[in-house]
Each structure stands twice: as structure tokens, then as C-alpha cells.
Design brief:
By secondary structure, this protein is of the alpha+beta class. It contains twelve helices and 14 strands. Strand 5 and strand 6 form a beta hairpin.
Length: about 450
Amino acid sequence: MTGRAKAGEVEAFLKANPDLEAAEAFVTDPTGIARGKLLRAAALARIYQEGRPLPCSIMSLDITGEDVEETGLVWDRGDEDKLAWPIAGTLKLAPWMARPTGQVLLSLYDLDGGPYVADPRHVLARVVERLGREGYRPVVAAELEFYLVDPARAADGRLQPPQAPATGRRLDRIDVYSVTELEEFAPFIDELYRAAKIMGLPAETLISEYAPGQLEVVLRHRSDALQAADEAIQWKRLVRGVALKHGLLATFMAKPYGSRAGSGFHIHASLADGQGRNLFADPNPEGTPLLRQAVAGLLATIDEAMGVFAPNANSYRRFQSASYAPIARSWGVNNRSVAVRIPTGAAETRHLEHRVAGADANPYLAIAAVLAGMHKGIAERLDPGPAITGNGYAQASADLPNDWPAALRLLKNSALLKEYFGARFLKIFHAIKAAECRRFGAQVSELDFEWYLTRA
């Protein structure tokens, strides 16, 4: 389903939507940003027949949209064009738009037809293909947390929780799992579910999380990991679009409030065989030996992959004790104080939940890093050691990298990511993030003035 689309897909879509006026066509760059073009409806079919030229530098941009020349994808290549092709199954309506508009995800290819090395979707495709050669089919579900905030800042310039659409009440307290809070946001939530149904996105449980305006949704598991990542990207765009319609700003940044919980991207994963049987299934709550090996691989590779799971300066503010974000390389059964959790459930549903990535991570790369770590653990028959029971924060001993520069140093030299992501892609990704880190660190903030202006 998630390979290059055929022309019949667009023909059927246009026939079903004769009033279509425009379509968004975009790739996802290494930072996770959607970048592309708004097309007239009449031009949509041509992409399926001819592809769409896009500059190779579109995959060289930092999170602010500036070229990173150290990637080698700008003037070193004369900013040559690559060809973008639609991804099968991703042509859908964008129901939050004011006029009839479609949306299609694209992937970039070299002019000779080979995958463009800098496209993060191809990274995940390579990891999935590698697992497939050994008879493993990844089954993946995305669980994404996000905040709704007021688009208008408070008097002191800080973010503030939103006013509930149904009541006008400004949220002012933690009300985790509150049904009342969900009811107050019913106009937003109802439209979100209606739009998800129109787009075929498998949004399931939605809950009020551990902060004012924080929500979480679970997207149903998919036996195609690429489809799961595509849908996570479509979901994030949908949430933002519907929120704006209701006078809200939706953010997936990892830590919008310093004193509140951060937003995670929890990745649920298992491996199936060629007949679709869950290879982790076992009445033992810890699962099969294969599952424990996969857990061990994740624990062994968290440090070097932190630059993927926590790709921004703000990402590292999320990792605090007793915050529902992990702080150590630990695992456990039915325990949310660890980095890798084995959820409770029936034997046939046994799987792992990777809790390290923030909601700001690129879904293609975060899922690829999880699957790579799992495969390493299985290939090397690693042992995760005993599971943590009780308070994992109190027992934390193997701390995670807790700052951006340290994580980027580990990322640059990662043997795992060079092998699974490809050395060229890793160099490109690191160059982008290192450039961001330098620019971010060079900024003089209000806190600099508050602390040092008259004291230093």
C-alpha cells in the first residue's frame, strides 16, 4: 500500500471529488517538517504520471527553513532537481480546509529512479526491508501526545492554556483523564474524529493527559510500518488544522511548559512472521525470548539514537524524574516509569512500548531507530537483565544523555545508525541538527539578561 502510487488512484479520487479545487503535495524533511506545493486540482493527475521536480536542497533545511550547506545538498550539487512521486494510499481530502482541498504525501527519488538518499522515508523503508529479509514483519502503532494552547500569549509573553470551546473556561489545573475536560473540548474533538474518519486515519482512544490542554491519541496498529509513519504525519497535520479552525493552537513540541508534563511519541511495536503471527505472543507477561532480546537491543542503543528521539534543544527539557518521561535505560512490565514498557494484555497482543521519543521526533526516523535497535538485540541475542519493578525513577542508574550537544556527538559516531540509516543520510541529518544546535546556542535569551546583566 505504501509504495509509489499508480495513476488509477488519482483518477478514482478525482471522480469521487469532482468539486476539488486544490491539493497539498509535500515531502517530509529530516526535521519532520512538511515541505512542498499547493497545486490546482487539474495539476494533481500529472504528478502521478510524470512526478514533480523538487530541489534536492529541500532535504537540507533546518527546522527554521534555512539551508544547511554542510549537508552537501545545496551548492555542491547546484541545487539540482529530484523527482517527487506520490505515496500510495496517502491521497486524501484535507477536511479542515475552507475550500475543497486534497492532500498527498510524496517521496523523493533520483532521476534514474533510485531512492534519494536524504529522504527520511527511504530510511525507514530500508530498515523494514532488512527485517523482511529475515522473515520479520514489524507491526507498529503510534501514540502521540500534544498540547492545545491559546494562540494569544499571556501578559508576560508566555504560553497560556486555552479557553475551552464549549464553556469559555480557561484551563488552570491538571485534570488527568478528565471526562469533563473532554466534554468542554467536544466541538474540537468531534470535528477531529469526523475529519480522521474522512481521511481514513485510525484514531482510537483519546484522553485528557497530565496537564491543562494536553491530549493523547492512539492510532491503531498497522502491519505496515511505513503506513503507520505516514499516518502519524497526516495525523499531526490534521490536529493542527482542526485546532486552528476552533481558535486553538496545537503543538507537538516536547516541552511547552517548564513545570508541566512533556509530550511523548510512544512507539508500540511487535514482530510478525510471514503468516501474520505475533512472534512476541506468550502467556508470560515478559513475552517470548525474542521480545526480551528486542528490548535489550533498544536499551543498548538508546544513547546513540537519542539525537533521533530527542532532536531539538527543547526535547531535553522533557526528561525529568516523576514526569512520565524516562530518565534511564530501563525496562519493565506494566510500568510507566521505565524507557521500554511491556504493556499488560492478552498473550496474543504482547508487544513493547518505546517511551523515549518526544512528539517532536520525525516519525519515519524514530520508528526506524526503534526497529533497528530491536533487530540488533535479536541478531546479537542480547539480554535486557531483570525488569524494573516499582518506581523506576527511584532506581534509575544508567542515565540517558540529557543535553543536545552530547546526544549529537553520540549520534555522529553511532555504528547502529550508520549501518541501518546509511552513513550518507546520517551525515546529512547530523549536519542539519549540528547547525541548529550552534544557532540555538548562540542566541542571547531573556533569561541571560535576568540572571547575568547586573550580576556577572
